[in-house]
Amino acid sequence: MNHELLLGWWDTAARDLPWRRPDCTAWGVLVSEIMLQQTPVSRVEPIWHEWLSRWPVPSAMAAASQGEVLRMWGKLGYPRRALRLHEAATVIARDHGDVVPSDISVLESLPGIGSYTARAVATFAYGQRCAVVDTNVRRVVARAVHGAGDAGPPSTTRDLRDVEAILPSSQEDAAVFSAALMELGALICTAKNQKCADCPLYDVCAWQLAGRPAYAGPAKKVQQFAGTDRQVRGKLLDVLRGAPGPVPKAQLDIVWHDVTQREKCLVSLLTDGLVEQSDDGLFHLPGEGIVQQSNKGAR
Question: What is the CATH number of the domain that holds 256?
Answer without folding.
Answer: 1.10.10.10
